Amino acid sequence: MKQRHWPLYGLRIRTPRLELRLPDLELLDELASVAADGVHAPDTMPFTVPWTDGSPADSGRAVFQHVLATVANWSPEKWALSLAVLHEGRVVGRQDVMAKDFAVTGEVSTGSWLGLRYQGRGIGTEMRAAALHLAFAGLGARTAVSSAMTDNPRSLGVSRRLGYLPDGLEAAALRGAPVTLQRLRLERARWEEHRTVDVTLEGLDACRAEFGG
C-alpha cells in the first residue's frame, strides 16, 4: 500500500534474518503482545523508565501508546523511529533510532528490547546492526550513541561487538534509587571497521526529508 501522507510506513530494513519496519496497527498489536509476554527476568530492571513494572496488560498498552506517540510527535528536528523487528515473519521485539537536530549534529541514539523467548540467538546484535546501517549508510550520520546499566552485560556486549567505545558514566534515578549507566559512542569510522551484517534499505528515499538530514 502506498503511503502518501506518512511514507515512513514504507521503510524496510532487512538483514539475513530480520526485517525492521514501522508497525501498522496489526503489527503494533503483535508487538504489544510480545511486551506483555515479558522482555526481562522479573528480578531485573534494565530500563531507566520502568515501563514493565505493571501488569502484562499494562506493559502491552504502554508499548502500543508509545509507538503511536512517536508518530504523532514526529518532526524533522526531533524524531524517534520505533521499529518492529520481525524474525521469520513474527514480531520479536522493538528497535528505536532517535535524534534531535540531526541536520546539525549528525548524531543518533538507539534503544531496544527483545521478547524473552527470542533472546540468546544473536537477534539483538543483528537488529542494532540494522539500525546503525540506516543511520550511517542511509542517513549519513557521523556518530551513534547508546547507554546501558553497568550491570546489563548483554546490552553492553552487543555494543562492544558493534564497535562502540565507552564514553563515561552517568547517574540516573530508578524507582527512587541511584543507578549507574555506561555511556557508549560509535564513530562512523569504527562502524565501518566493525560491519559484519549485510543490510539492505527499501523505501528510504520517499521519507528521507522526514529525518531532517
Short description:
The chain has 213 residues and is of the alpha+beta class.
Give a description of the structure.
The chain has a single domain (7-211), classed as Gcn5-related N-acetyltransferase (GNAT) (Aminopeptidase, 3-Layer(aba) Sandwich), CATH 3.40.630.30. Helices cover 30% and strands 31% of the residues. Strands 7-8-6-5-4-3-2-1-9 form a nine-stranded mixed beta sheet, sandwiched between helices. It has 213 residues and is an alpha+beta fold. Helix 1 (25-36) packs antiparallel against helix 2. One of its GO terms (molecular function) is protein N-terminal-serine acetyltransferase activity. This is GNAT family N-acetyltransferase. Pfam families: Acetyltransf_3.
User: Rg to the nearest angstrom?
Assistant: 16 Å
Residue ranges: pLDDT <50 for 5 or more in a row? none
How would you write the strand order of the largest sheet?
7-8-6-5-4-3-2-1-9
The CATH superfamily is known as: Gcn5-related N-acetyltransferase (GNAT)
**CATH class assignment:** Alpha Beta
Question: Helices and strands, in N-to-C order?
Answer: EEHHEEHEHEHEEHE
CATH fold naming: Aminopeptidase
Describe the largest sheet. 9 strands, mixed
The number of domains: 1
Mass-distribution shape: globular
Quaternary state, please? single chain
Mean pLDDT figure: 94
Q: What is the end-to-end distance?
A: 26 Å
* Structure summary, number of beta strands: 9
User: What fraction of the residues are assigned to beta strands by DSSP?
Assistant: 25-35%
